Predict the structure.
Amino acid sequence: MIKNKPVLPLLIYDADCTVCRLWVDYWKSLTGDRVKFTPFQNVAGEFPEIPLEHYKNFVHFITPEGEFFKGAEAVFRVLSYCKGKGWLLWMYAKIPGFSSISELNYRLFATHRSFLYRVTLLFWGKDLGPERFIISRWVFLRLLGIIYFIAFLSFWLQLDGLIGSNGISPADIYLGSLDINYGWKAYFKIPTLAWINNGDFFLGLIPFAGMLLSGLLIAGILSVPVLVALWLLYLSIVTIGQAFMSFQWDALLLEAGFLAFFLAPLGFIQKLNRESSPSTIIIWLYRFLLFRLMFSSGIGKFVSGDPTWRDFTALNYHYYTQPLPTPIAWYVHQLPEWFHKISVGTVLFIEIVIPFFVFAPRRLRHIAGITIMLLQVLIMFTGNYAYFNLLTIALIVLLFDDAFFQSLLLKKLKIINFQKKAIAESNLRRSIKEIVLVALAAFVILLGTIQLVRVFTGYRNLPSFVQNVMRWVSPYRIVNNYGLFTGMTTSRPEIIIEGSNDGQNWLEYGFKYKPVELNKYLPWVAPHQPRLDWQMWFAALGSYQTSPWFPNLMYRILEGSRDVLELLDHDPFPDGPPKYLRAMVYEYRFSGLNTKRATGNLWERELKGLYLPVLTIPPN
């Protein structure tokens, strides 16, 4: 026992130890005024019970009751005064062997302080203070608002031709059939505001309202209710969009948008100088989402058994077999095979290994973020993947804390140090928020882990009760399964729609972005997604029986639907629809350098056969 008892809990450390000072400053930021910190050089004479030589080898913790502790136990007792870190002292006291291992590690580091200092700088840098994500959240929410705006605008431009009353897959017919088959259960299987009204005007209001609300989110006005409304609106068009809204980035936007309910600050308008940092729980849930997105895509390439990923030849085919290549894709495809194999290895490393570092200390996490971001930029250069890459980059933003942004920009811009002006929350409000976030984290981590297990086991191998839970949750896209290009296509079949008035001379319909003409430029179209062009790519990989919307497309063209024809680039029958229509399949591949120089063609193609037999509308 110590006779000279301190008023507050007291940690005594060696002021001559650089790494000790770093960590003590960090602990100070966590404990506030609940613990006092002082160098032994100032107070050693006040506590004769502690041998002087011990001060250089151990930190010491003295309680107001006069008890004193040293080494790892002293550290854990300091941390017990920090919110959310008392579990370390509990493990030290309750778990057999934990105390011995902790003290052994403490002595190891104490005798190698220079090494510990270098490790600290490598993993965390010199700033060990609590990480805040006020700027990160501000940037993320504005990126999310921009992405929502793009997504709503892109679909709004195509809505009439895709799901309008004269479109390919009319929403009113779709919802009517669900109502007949499922009754009231249809409202839960297909959650959409279109149940209120499925007329063309009301359907158009949904994405239009989404664009307006996206502007409010970008402006930081009423962020939480706006995010809830945006999620509901986008869920509404995803569920009635049928095959045309079935892409993984649609699900990713809904999942990221759902988590944003709990990330965004409350209040009428977002102000950086009056905000507290978001909960660590929600930051970690976003990291878990980024991890699942990347790791599922990477490990799925191996689990699928696809030989091109296993023998590192996948990128020999990818650039011309992907749905909508960019102009750069043609040039990258011409590079030698060794380059493509190295690229495959790099992609697999980034998708399988790097995602684990999103959970690592600050410096390693930043390296992971920059690495994944570079991959997304390279993907954007060679392929048009709507807003997927931009959304992934937005998720990466939350890997970087405010200290990172301040070191890059804020000090140069002389922006106010807002971190000292955060609003203090009441204990009751904080407790309620923590309970909600813990419940949310348990729910998301459970379902997210199940989704990761599905990558290895498949859906049908899961227990029946797990399958039931997944079926119940799946319509709301709260937690989703990911895995991009887990199976590489090694050829590119393309459906070419042809019309004729005599059954002998056939003219081709042109599409705005997908290949038809051999010399047509490769487009830059992302972040807009021409969803018919994308679905034509998927339809060509199977038969028209597996794409039931395709015969509807043919019928609408024969009918002369202006809404559908506006989705196309070239109508070879401007005076009225043709009498006959058919669909042929060609295999497309990029041309070589010599062919391009000689003909100007970017593509070569070979006729494979008939995709859909000749159709005609009998005269009345």
Observations:
- Residues 311 and 453 are 25 Å apart (CA to CA).
- The two ends are 104 Å apart (CA to CA).
- The chain has four domains: 10-123, 131-278, 280-385+424-487, 492-615.
